[in-house]
Write a structure and sequence with these properties.
The protein is an alpha/beta fold. The protein has 5 domains: 95 residues, no CATH class; 135 residues, von Willebrand factor, type A domain (Rossmann fold), CATH 3.40.50.410; 100 residues, Immunoglobulin-like (Sandwich); 230 residues, Class I glutamine amidotransferase (GATase) domain (Rossmann fold); 75 residues, Immunoglobulin-like (Sandwich). The protein contains 11 helices and 37 strands. Strands 16-15-17-18-24-23-22-20 form an 8-stranded mixed β-sheet. The protein has a 5-stranded parallel β-sheet with strand order 4-3-5-6-33, with helices on both faces. A 5-stranded mixed β-sheet has the order 8-14-13-10-11, with no helix packed on it. A hairpin with a 2-residue loop joins strand 31 and strand 32. It is elongated, with a radius of gyration of 46 Å. The chain starts with a strand and ends in a 7-residue tail after the last helix.
Length: 696
């Protein structure tokens, strides 16, 4: 209970001030005239003004409120290194015990994980955001102090709030800690196939680095999980590394610095860069054996793509015309056979033989070169017509040695609808094409060449289930045979047409070894920390995928079948970093977050970043390796930290339960007092004026 004297004037304060000024003038005039009752007149005026001011006693019933101490515990990834978890747990237990021993004091505990308080996938430790949120939930008048248990590596320092009480930092880690990390300072998102790109790397040491650690480190580089290559590089210097991307699509480059005994963590020794490989131009050589309705469709299809460089030659002389003119004199321009099939054959990404027959224009030695070009990694598509079963068939050349079919010399001239084989429903080249069919199904074709499949994969069939499109791998290259020259009917929209453009696009990309069209593959993609794992296969159902996290822990993920030949599932990754996936002979790597998580950019515990925030709030930064500090109470405005102790400021907050106001004196008392003083002044002055006359 507390009492206070307050005023509740009966008239506006401005009028009261006016009356006070008038009273002061009257009293001053009385003093100037030498009136002996001026003091009594002044006291009477004061009593009258006091009556008008109506002084009152305000009595409050108050309930004391407890002081609040906020403790923010950093539970981010960098706090799970070495002895830091044990240090944090011990410090928290000590703080809880000390606060519990203080009278009228409560503790509010807040824990902060990786990226909490931000929408970014790798926001780091949002320590100040958590402190601000905790302050917003409590009355500021009750905050007696705040304590941060952390390694000092906060990533939202500009958001630090202003506290009405001391702020302290209990620093984990040890002064002898040192660490080595790998930094990717420059990495492009895209690269052109066949052209080198430059990545800039740097290996950096932090902390109390031992003197016997050499200035060099071993770094290994692997692409898409292949066998890594190791190099010896200098520490503390930028390394410019030229890299040539091996294939189109996403290429995952993994860098790993060899672990040195004694370093704080190896989590920042690895980094992953994802570079999307794109082709500058797709170089296609189209050789048409004779003019026909489908030739123009092939040409228009390839020329419509601005990224395709097309070289097209058509042999105009029909086979039945024999007039003795030398073959070398039949072209409108000289056919540069040697240049195309010997000197520059490896510059082409795809060679298409469209109804080509052996006429002596391409010597068998050149076809040997085409065969070897495929074995070295080239790709050939054979679009067969009636000539394929004849004596001058391309199948009878050296190129036939690598074809996955044998010709039967039979040509079917009848209508049929192409269909996907059971294998074709699972193969990436043709998977889902049936969904692109118009109402009533695909349009018919009217010619099919009889083939016998000897190897490879038949993904489309025609008359009586005979192979229509056969794909095969030949050493490092690929070859495809299409047993009909009527695909152009789809392009013309006959009977509704069919997915000619999509089929040829997929076929070309498969032959170009694009990863998204590999029939056997393990791939992963990520949105935030949700990892989507997909296994494509044309064989039996695969087993579970083993996922190895950044900290080395392993877990298995079962992949249910979501489409023919496609198995997929999602995995909620517990943290940012590099994840390795393995299933049988297949492997993949996936990086969540940046090339290296923010939490491991700086791992050495330090209070330097927090010092400018703690100092104005009269707090302290104490290392836990030197012992857990005591907690004391200090007066407001005093230094609140010292050797082995930290202080909090009691706030004395209270809750007002009741207020009672009573007049200091009744109004008639004030009036009686004022009148008495005025009467006394009159009597004194009257007595002074009636002095007796002097006698003589």
């Amino acid at each position: 209970m507390t009492d206070a004297l307050i005023a509740a004037p009966l008239i506006p304060m401005l009028a009261l001030y006016g009356l006070a000024a008038a009273a002061l003038v009257i009293v001053g005039y009385s003093l100037w005239r030498g009136l002996s009752g001026w003091a009594l007149r002044g006291l009477g005026a004061l009593a009258l003004l006091a009556a008008i001011a109506n002084p009152s006693i305000q009595r409050e019933d108050r309930e004391p409120l407890s002081d609040i101490v906020i403790v923010v515990v950093d539970d981010s990834a960098s706090q799970r290194i070495g002895t830091r978890p044990a240090q944090s747990a011990t410090a928290l237990a000590r703080v809880q015990a000390e606060i519990a021993a203080l009278p009228n004091t409560e503790l509010r505990l807040v824990r902060v994980g990786d990226g909490e308080g931000t929408t970014r996938s790798d926001g780091g430790t949002q320590l100040m955001t958590a402190l601000s949120a905790a302050l917003a939930e409590e009355p500021r008048a009750r905050i007696a102090g705040a304590i941060l248990i952390t390694d000092g590596q906060a990533h939202d320092l500009p958001l630090a709030p202003k506290l009405p009480a001391p702020l302290h930092v209990l620093l984990t880690g040890e002064a002898s800690d040192w660490d080595r990390r790998l930094i990717i300072t420059n990495a492009p998102a895209f690269a052109i196939l066949g052209e080198p790109v430059t990545l800039t790397l740097r290996i950096e040491d932090q902390g109390a680095v031992p003197a016997d650690i050499a200035g060099f480190a071993m770094i290994s580089i692997a692409i898409d999980g292949d066998e890594p290559q190791s190099y010896r590089v200098a520490v503390g210097e930028d390394l410019e590394l030229p890299v040539t991307i091996p294939h189109g699509g996403m290429n995952v480059l993994q860098f790993q610095v060899a672990v040195t005994p004694g370093e704080l963590t190896e989590r920042n020794n690895a980094a992953v860069v994802q570079i999307n490989g794109v082709r500058d131009r797709l170089r296609v050589l189209l050789v048409s054996g004779e003019p026909h309705a489908g030739e123009r469709v092939w040409r228009n299809l390839l020329k419509s793509d601005p990224s395709v460089d097309l070289v097209h030659f058509t042999i105009l002389r029909p086979p039945e015309k024999q007039d003795g003119i030398p073959v070398s004199e039949l072209s409108l321009i000289a056919f540069p056979t040697r240049e195309l099939f010997v000197e520059k054959i490896d510059e082409f990404d795809l060679i298409i033989f469209d109804r080509y027959r052996l006429r002596g224009i391409l010597p068998n030695a050149y076809l040997h070169n085409v065969r070897d070009y495929v074995k070295r990694g080239g790709t050939v598509l054979v679009a067969a017509g009636p000539e394929f079963g004849s004596a001058d068939s391309l199948w009878r050349s050296s190129l036939g040695e690598i074809m996955p079919v044998d010709a039967t010399s039979r040509v079917y001239e009848q209508g049929f609808k192409p269909a996907l084989t059971e294998l074709g429903k699972r193969h990436p080249v043709t998977e889902g094409l049936e969904k692109l069919a118009p109402a009533g199904g695909w349009g018919r074709w009217f010619r099919q060449i009889g083939l016998v499949q000897t190897s490879g994969q038949a993904v489309m069939s025609g008359i009586d289930g005979q192979p229509l499109l056969v794909l095969d791998r030949v050493e490092q290259g690929r070859i495809a045979v299409l047993a009909s020259d009527h695909m152009w009917l789809w392009g013309r929209g006959f009977e509704g047409g069919g997915p000619q453009l999509e089929l040829l696009r997929r076929l070309a990309h498969w032959m170009m070894k694009e990863p998204e069209l590999e029939e056997e593959a393990l791939v992963a993609s990520a949105i935030g920390q949700k990892l989507t794992v997909t296994r494509r296969t044309i064989g039996d159902a695969p087993g579970p995928v083993t996922i190895t996290g950044p900290d080395g822990t392993q877990s298995e993920l079962i992949l249910p079948e979501i489409a023919p030949g496609r198995y997929s599932a999602q995995y909620d990754a517990p943290e940012m970093g590099l994840y390795k996936l393995a299933q049988g002979a297949f492997s993949a790597v996936m990086a969540l977050g940046p090339s290296a998580p923010k939490e491991f950019e700086e791992t050495i515990a330090s209070g330097d970043k927090l010092a400018p925030i703690v100092s104005p709030m009269r707090g302290g930064i104490l290392r836990l390796e030197q012992g857990n500090p005591d907690i004391r109470t200090v007066a407001e405005g005093r230094v609140a930290a010292g050797r082995g102790w930290i202080g909090i400021t009691p706030r004395g907050a209270y809750l007002t339960q009741d207020i009672r106001i009573a007049a200091l004196l009744p109004g008639w008392v004030w009036l009686l007092l004022a009148a008495g003083l005025a009467l006394a002044a009159w009597l004194v002055e009257g007595r002074k004026t009636r002095k007796p006359a002097a006698t003589g």
